[in-house]
Every structure is written in C-alpha cells, then in structure tokens.
Amino acid sequence: PPSVSLPHSFMLKSSEQARRVQAEAMVMQEKLCATHRLCHPEELALLGHSLGIPWASLRSCSSRDLQLLGCLRQLQAGLMLYQGLLQALAGISPALSSSVDLLRLDVADFATTVWQQMEDLGVAPAAQPTLGTVPAFTSAFQRQAGGVLVASHLQDFLELALRALRYLSRP
Amino acid sequence: EKCGHISLSAPIVRLGDPVTASCTVSQSCSHLEPEPQILWKLGAELLQHRGKQQTQPDGSQQSVITLPSLNSTHTFLHCYLNWSNSLQLLDQAELWAGHPPAMPYNLSCLMNLTTNSLTCQWEPGADTHLPTNFTLKSFKSRGDCQTKEDPIKDCVPADGQSYCSIPRKHLLLYQNMVIWVQAENALGTSLSPQLCLDPMDVVKLEPPTLSALDPNSEVARPRPDCLWLRWEPWKPSFYMNQKCELRYRPQLGEASWAQVGPLPSRTTRYELCGLRAATAYALQMRCIRLHLPGDWSSWSPSLELQTT
Amino acid sequence: EKCGHISLSAPIVRLGDPVTASCTVSQSCSHLEPEPQILWKLGAELLQHRGKQQTQPDGSQQSVITLPSLNSTHTFLHCYLNWSNSLQLLDQAELWAGHPPAMPYNLSCLMNLTTNSLTCQWEPGADTHLPTNFTLKSFKSRGDCQTKEDPIKDCVPADGQSYCSIPRKHLLLYQNMVIWVQAENALGTSLSPQLCLDPMDVVKLEPPTLSALDPNSEVARPRPDCLWLRWEPWKPSFYMNQKCELRYRPQLGEASWAQVGPLPSRTTRYELCGLRAATAYALQMRCIRLHLPGDWSSWSPSLELQTT
Questions:
Q1: Which residue among C3, C29, C89 places its CB closest to the CB of A43?
Q2: End-to-end CA distance of chain B
Q3: pTM of the predicted model over 0.90
C-alpha cells in the first residue's frame, strides 16, 4: 500500500490508552504482591515456562527496524493474546478479580482502537485474530503466579508500544 | 359470575379528555329489586341522572355514562345499585389523567475514573401526572456516530431519579457512542436529542494535589519573595497528559488572583517568586487534559504558605 | 502436569502445633538440573537444610519438611527449585494457625415491636485468628422448652457482627422457643448456653409519651403546688396492659427524684400536687408489662413544667 501515516488523534488516544493499561497492570502486580506475597516475577520464569504461557512479540515495532503495518498488526495481535490470558485468569482471587476484569476490558478496548485504525487505513487482515490458545491454570497458585507474569510482561510490551508510538509521532 | 362490572373506554386519558364507562349488573344481583337502579359516583360526587340504563338480552342491567372531560389526575369511578334504599357498591375503577411525556432535555454525561462508569443526567420535563419510565439508551458507534455498532444494555435509573450510570463493562473506551433518554408512559413516548461522545472525552477530572516544600532544604538562603511547592495530578488520571494553571493571592484582603500557566501536570520542585515578603498566600491549581478533549478540573483546595 | 506441588498435613492447625509439608517437583521441571535442589521458605525466611529430599520412583524429586511449631496465624510456605543459580518458585501454600472457637456467652434477646423481629446479641469470645462463622439457631418449643417442635431457619449475622434478627414470619409469638449461638471454624465448633423464652416476654418497651395539660382548662383556680399532665403508652404497645411510674424533681439543683407509682399506662388527666410553687420541674415516666414477664422501659425524655 502507498506510504501509510497514522492520524495524530490516533497517536494521542492510543498512547493514553497504553499508559492507562500499563498503570492498571502495575496496580494488579502490586495487589498480587500485597495479597499473595508473589512479588518477584523473575522467580516464576520456570513456572511460566512449564505452564506454557505465550509471549507477544513487537519485533516490527523496534526503532531499529520499524515497519508501521507490521507493528500495528503485532500490537493488535499481542493485545488480543493478553486479553485471552487475562480471561484465563478469571477466578484468580476475590481481592484481584475487579482489577483483572478492568484490565481485560481496557486491553480489549485498546485492541479495538488499533483494529479500527487498521480498518480505517484499509490494511486490516480479512479476519480479526482470535484470542488464541492460552494455558489452563489448574490451581489458585498457578492463576496468581500466572497473573504476576502476565502483568509484568504486559507492562514491558506496552513500554515497547509506547516507544514505537512516540517514534511514529515525531514530525 | 360478577355482581357488577365496570368497563372503561380507557383507564388512562389525557387531562380534559372524555371517558365512557359502562356498568353491567348481573341478574343474580339485580333481580331482588323490582326496578333496579344503577348509580354512579366520581370520587365522592354522586353523578345525578347521567347514566343511560337498559336491560340487556340476558336480563342483566347495564348503565352507560360519559364523563365529558376528566380533570383530576387520579380518581375512582364507582358503580352502585340502589338496593332496598341502600347504595350498594358493586365495582369501582381507577381513572388516571395526565400528559404524554415531554421531551427530556439538557442530557449531559461525565466519566468517573474512580468507579469507571459513565454517569448521565437530564431534565425530565414537565410533570405528566402519570407513572413515567425514563431509560438511558445507547449504542456503540464509530467516527462521527453515523454507524450503529453493538447496542448497549438499557440503563434504568432508580425511581424518580434523573441520572443513570452505565457500568464499565458496557462501555467501549476511546470510541464514540450514541446516547439518548427515552421517556414513556401510558399516553406515549418521547426521546431526547442524541449525544455522540467518547466516554474518555468527558472525564470528570479532579484537581491535582499541591504540597509545600521546605525552603531551607531547597536553597541555601531562601529569598523572602519566593515560595517552594510541588504538585502531582489526581492519581486515577496519572496516565493522562495534562496541563495545569496555578493561581495565588494573599490570604488577607481582597486581592484578585494572579495566575501562572500553562504548567506541567507534575513537578517535584517549583519556585514561585515576585511575592510580598512575610505574607500568607493561598495557592490553588487546576488541570485539563492535554491535546485531547476534556474539561478543566475544579480548582484545588487552597494550599496556604507564608513567605519569610 | 504440575511443575511443583506442595501438599500439607493440614492447611489450618492450632497455634503452636507442628505442620508437615512435602513438595514434589516433576521430572519435566527438574531434569534440566543435574542435581536439582529443593529449598523452602516460610514467609520471607529461607529454611536452611530442613527438608529431606528424595528421588521418587517416577523420577520426580520430593522434599519433606516438618515445622515443629507454627506460631504465626497466617503465613505462606514457598517451595523453590535452585535452577541454574536462580531460585525458582514452583508452588506456595497458605498456612493458618489459630484456636477452635470459644463458647459464645451473654446471649440475650429483645423483641422489637416496630419491626416485629427478635434481635439477639452475644459475646463472641476470644479471637480465634481464623475465619469463624456464628449462627443464631433456634427451634419452636412448648412449656419449659423440654420438647423440640419445628426448627426455625438459621439466622446468619452480617460479617463480623455479633447480633442477628429473626424476622416475624419465623416466630411463634406467645410460645416458648429455644435459642443458642453456634460458633464454627476449621478447628471446631462450640455452642452457647441455650435460652428458653417467649419473644413477647422480652419486648423492648419504649417509654410512654408525657404531655402537659393547660391548668386553666382543668380547674377554675389552679393550685400553685400542682401540675396537670396526661400520658399514653408507646403506640406499638397499646394492646399491652402496663403499669407505670412517674418521677419528678426541680430542674435546678441536685434534688433526687421523687417517685409515684404504680400508675395506669394511660390517663387523660393527672394532677400532681405537693410541689413547690413557682418552680420548674422535670417529669419522667417509665412503664412495664402488667402481670406478664417484661422489662421496664427506659425513662421517658423529661417533660418540663412550671408550677404557678
């Protein structure tokens, strides 16, 4: 497609949306630490690996090799993946459920914002990506530990997305 | 079989409209009277000679009455039988009169970042004298609200209230939605004008938190005409880029506010100079969303600081 | 298959009791380490060399640990694998320690004639440090409560509260019922002593309403040492025969109350004499059920009258 550029209003809104989701993911992580003493995501790498928790890549959004359409697609697909992961955490624990619900709704809305922008640019794939397969957490501990990993990685994912959006917003 | 039965042209009419009613008295009740006489009362008033009474083919007695203009909003119509000189009440019907709902107006909405719900309020319009249901209706849309995407669950306000809150799970943030109010009673329905808005563009922003800095920890020899302070935005709005304005004036006397702005929404150290020495000042701040639609927050409570 | 799994002898024990735990690490997780080492943490404390680790027939690793005496009421037990020199958390279990419930005591009930419900309150006894459920249990009975008639629906108080109200529809008035409180947590159950009462014998009676009478309309020449008043019982207790007591004293000074009684529970005209002239008096009244069990109401608010 001819060189595609993103409208300024999309940059502003999606950046704010990214910061909003990032703030909520941080709140979720703080609650998991306070309530369930799960405060160190680095201690959960092996568990995350054994649970088969997938991670979203934003390779096309890195400033070294930024491809706008690829970046949008990866951003949208990544948000759908996190929406699915957050859905799988349902019933994580009474203290956390409202945070997880709010975060899932905000991630879903952000995915919609990106998808509608791709549609407006006429670059949206025929079918919207599905939530994808996510692990089945079989214990409260797995859901809580999974919650720490998802919240922690979602913040890193959004940090990359914000950097790409800032990079794209430069005149 | 009913002793007496009233049937109405309509139980609810417009104020001043006519009402026709018939009262049918079964033979089992009227046969004891050689010449059974059906009488009507409206509220407490006996309606003299107003009903046309006839014997029906099945032997029952029927009286038909027309009230030319019903002027009370709520009253009772009673059907009596004059039974060995005592008025016997056989049936009664409730009559309502009022107006179809006026068009609700002044619809406005605010997004609450603490409850994450969108609260809309409206003016109901003139009293209809009838039970009238208000419903806040909306659907998700895109762009400039020309297309209708998913409908949103109706928001039904508590009785008698003219506001309703749409919970977060029914909202699609950062996209436009169409919102209106429907008023409905027995005499009709009316709709308010529609609003087209993104909930995040109507956030109710709270003011930032101002706090004093200890001058001595800031500078070696604090200037007598300066004050040191810091502020940070309202926590639920941390993620929103905002710009702010600071206003200040001596606490005593009636000086008008001096104002500084635009200022960033958070700073750990701000020096305000050009003030009168040894004077107590009141400082306030407000903020507004940057680059994107939004309203000014109210002014923060005063921070009271004294120049040295 | 779980990477690591803790199983406990019991998740809830008595304070100071031992706890035995095992952590089983599946081969899929431990095979990456030549000599997988399982470590334990209790709260934030790493338990050095306290677990006996063995390889199981299925190749998994299992470490068993015994905590001789659990002294904190709520803590976490963590199972780690030392994995290429980084501690990897594989599972954690929540540990609770506390006491079985003490016997609830001081159970008392009052029948509320406005809400027509029987409200009972009790002392819960010492804190058990564990989630403990209190339930107000009762059944209908007869005579002196030796027989058990119909059971009554359990009354479950709101969280943390030590009172519960049994609604009218579950009560059989003017008959005895048996009531007690059950306290239950993971370590046991305990029951309060039982009460045998008729709800109508424990009515919370409110005081009567005192009102002044105009002396001039009572007598031609009102005596300076008298006051005229009337009273009627608390409306919801109108049907109860009651006797009452009146007490009075000058408003000023520290005179003790003078008392008159027993008096009927309602009178339209009462003359109180023998008082000091030209003095402001405070009058109060209370009542109690007549001939049947009941408690005195509290004293009514003061009626202030002035002798002439």
A1: C89
A2: 96
A3: no
